[in-house]
Amino acid sequence: MEDQGQARVHDVAVACDTRRGWVTVTGQLSTEIDHPVVDLTLIAADGQPLASTMIVDAPPEFQMTLHPRQAERGLALTLRIEVFHDDDLVCVQEYPFTFEP
Question: Does 3 reside within a domain?
């Protein structure tokens, strides 16, 4: 997927805990956005969203744990990060990964 504008989220990392069924996402926002809203979604290869959450007034460095439904070890997933400012979509970034430790 093409990014809208420049990348606004940097140093994105995904850590999986398959035993607990957790995916922990960390990232760093560009500082030029005041009161950003960060929407995190885990998407299966078939396009089905398995987990999502929103961080309102996100800090410059964020960490959030998501609990994907029906995720089995070895499942191919995509992390979609959408950043909003005043209800406007600022950027969309996607990161493919595999649900495994």
Answer: no
